[in-house]
Amino acid sequence: MFSYCADPDTLGTFRWFSCYLTNGVHMSFYMSFVKVLVLLAVTAPVALAFGFAGAMAARSHFPPLGWLGKGYIAIVRGVPDIAFFLFFVIALDQAFEWTRHQMFCPDWTDPIRQGNDFLVCPQAKLPLGTAPEWVHETYGFFLAVITFSIVFGAFAANVLFGGMRAVPHAQLETAEAYGMSRRQTFWRILVPQMWVYALPGLSNLWMVLIKATPLLFLLGIEDIVYWARELGGTKTSRFTDYPHGDWRMWYFLFLLIFYLAMTRVSEIGLERLMRKLSHGQATAAGELLRKETTQ
Amino acid sequence: MSCLQTIQDYGLRSIGIGERLLPKGDYTLCEHFTLIGSGMIWNIYFGVMALATGFFLATALALGKASANPLLRKPSEWFIFVFRGSPLFIQFFFAYFFFLSLKKTYPMFDAFTAAWLGALIVLFLNTAAYSGEIFYGALRSIPKGDLEAADAYGMSGWSRFRRIVWPTMLRLAWPAYTNEAIFLFHATTLVFFSAFPAWQQRGDALYYASYFADKTFNPFIPYPILAFYFILLTLAIVGVFGLVNKRLNRHLPAARRARMRFRLNLAR
């Protein structure tokens, strides 16, 4: 990075660290923080959409759809989320490959599950065996995003379902009295009002989502945990210009501080958002705001 | 090999009793159930021990955070913030490498790098922080009248705390605390997936489930079995905590008695 980095052995402590922290592998380490932020940015809206669909299904008066929605919400509660992460990554991958196998190789006669193997024809492999490295990485990340969205979608569905139920019933009855259809009542009356009730739950969910991002490591992504383990491990001068002892503890301390900062910033942001949304609402928080301004 | 034989061989495999080698080749359904169930011993061990010890620290933290003295309040607030604001997964990693470097200078820290103690300490601190926040919330919503009544009876200090504040706090916090307990048990599955090594392949339920999934490349059998065990465990927790809840609320008239309602306050 800097011109004096050519021979690190001769440098003083400060310069040594300035070179060490800007070398190639550390740049990959910093890029992995971007990965985490991208994951958050993509997963949050997708999970919200999954959640909305789940909550709508759970409210449905058509029994199979209602059971589906309720089942989707309930199953996540009883089982550790990490089990879902590990399950979906393999299950989704196999589901995609199986579908492609049915499409591309209809005359393939061998069974797909042979003993302890899962074999599809070469054209159905995902990504293709010939694909470059970045396609493999992107595909892995894509699977991770879907997995996160499914799991957090179930959490969001539970929150939104609660929010929908919290809207005063009189509002819905009034809509009915005005002759609105069920669909109109849902979209025009229920949906606009439910957000205030759902927001505390959703902000809690956002915090949980932030804290779940290190689980990317378990899905085989080269994320911050992976790099912290790699970079922190003992390095001898045979393999690197920057030999050092076991620094993994310090790398993880840095990650700990990074996450604390993330949650603190989100806390402050969400508090502001709640304050804004409570403005003019007939809730205790809204009443407090009114008193503050009138006094 | 009959299923009974499998249970004899692998039922206590996770704590090192029975067959040393894990089964090979074609895995039967019985082997799945037995090994994953044997792994549940670790989940229950971590959960029960962390809850039992964390409860006391949580009470202390809640009292500290509610205290008027900044020397007590500030450390409690920081403790709760640090453990609730960072992922448990990272806490496990940090603690493991921290104990590892301690071990290098002081060999007496040897046991701390093993999961049974090191991970337990992390879980203990973590659950204490989460429950401490729950108890603190409950402490602040103790009805004013109860405290005034205690004053009127001339109670103060320890007897007021022991007879009025503490039972009421527990009663108010209990539904949320039940949730915390459920999620603590779920969090125990992270132990062997963070840095803590599973010595001689003695792991928890998820460790064995992912072992099977890796070997057979078929996630559709081991993970549903794991889910089955955890749903049973969750039901058991709800049952036990429901009994305690009943006892905590026994003085209230039946109509005002808080029915246990479980709201999802999500994992850590």
From TrEMBL, chain A:
Keywords: Membrane, Transmembrane, Transmembrane helix, Transport. It is a multi-pass membrane protein. GO terms for biological process: transmembrane transport. Its main location: membrane. GO terms for cellular component: plasma membrane. The keyword Transmembrane applies. The keyword Metal-binding does not apply. Residues 33-266 form the ABC transmembrane type-1 domain. It is found in: Cell membrane. PROSITE patterns: ABC_TM1 (PS50928). Pfam families: BPD_transp_1. The chain crosses the membrane at residues 36-59, 71-92, 139-161, 249-266. Belongs to the binding-protein-dependent transport system permease family. This is ABC transporter permease. It comes from Ruegeria marisrubri.
From TrEMBL, chain B:
It comes from the Bacteria. One of its GO terms (cellular component) is ATP-binding cassette (ABC) transporter complex. Residues 40-244 form the ABC transmembrane type-1 domain. GO terms for biological process: amino acid transport. GO terms for molecular function: transmembrane transporter activity. Gene3D superfamilies: MetI-like. Keywords: Amino-acid transport, Cell membrane, Membrane, Transmembrane, Transmembrane helix, Transport. The chain crosses the membrane at residues 44-66, 78-99, 111-130, 181-200, 220-244. Belongs to the binding-protein-dependent transport system permease family. HisMQ subfamily. This is Amino acid ABC transporter permease. It comes from Ruegeria marisrubri.
